[in-house]
Each structure stands twice: as C-alpha cells, then as structure tokens.
Write a structure and sequence with these properties.
Length: 131
C-alpha cells in the first residue's frame, strides 16, 4: 500500500514515534511524506520515504495530486487543531480529496492506531479505485 505521512510542526515528534512503534508494519509499504516530516522519519526510524515539498510549499498538494490519480491508499495526517496554519486552504483541499476518493484518513493518534492495526490485518483490501 501507498501511505502518506504528514504532520504539523507540533505533531511531528508524535508521528515519528508512531512510525517507529509500528516500523515492522510500515516497512512493508511504500511511504510518502511532506518534506520535514519525511526527513525526520528517515533519520529517526530508518525506513525509506519518498519526500515531497514541505506542506506550505506545495507538499500537501503533491499528495493531493496522487490521491486524484488513484496513486495513494491511506493518509495519516497528524494535525495541530490549536495552531493556525498558513496553508489551511491546501489542508482543506487534501481532506476533501480524501473524502471524494474514499481514502482512509487518520488525523490523530487514536485514529492512526485503529488504521495501522487494520493495515496489519489486511482490512483495506476493499478500497475501491474511483475512476
């Protein structure tokens, strides 16, 4: 599966720790991430990650383009709901694309825990490709 990893600045450490805790699962999939998030995952977890631009510089849109082309299966996006983001329109567009293309989206640790265990069990084989 192709899994996107995104985290706002105050959530990057939490996402890195999450990927580290489930490294054995993530290692079996293709990982994509926005700039700094991907760099931290590579450095601290040691798994390969295709890095896009940082979110404010277009990384969210690059992942959105993959979603629109049916090239992304899952998005894990640890959002910081208490800090205004300068690229909020890009974030909203990404979330909308996940809904349009029926891409499972976890925006916090609890949802990501449920999702990662679903990946481990193979629960996402149902994902329909929207044409």
């Amino acid at each position: 599966m192709k899994i996107a990893l995104i985290a706002h600045d105050k959530k990057k450490k939490e996402l890195v720790n999450f990927v580290l805790a489930y490294k054995s699962i993530f290692s079996g999939h293709q990982l994509y991430a926005t700039g700094t998030t991907g760099e931290q995952v590579i450095d601290k977890v040691g798994v390969p990650v295709h890095r896009f631009q940082s979110g404010p510089l277009g990384g969210d849109q690059q992942i959105g383009a993959m979603i629109a082309e049916n090239e992304m299966d899952i998005v894990i996006f640890f959002r910081d709901p208490l800090t205004a983001q300068p690229h909020e329109p890009d974030v909203s567009a990404l979330l909308r694309l996940c809904d349009v293309y029926k891409i499972p989206l976890a925006t916090n640790l609890a949802a990501a825990e449920v999702m990662i265990h679903g990946i481990e069990r193979g629960d996402f084989q149902w994902r329909e490709i929207v044409k």
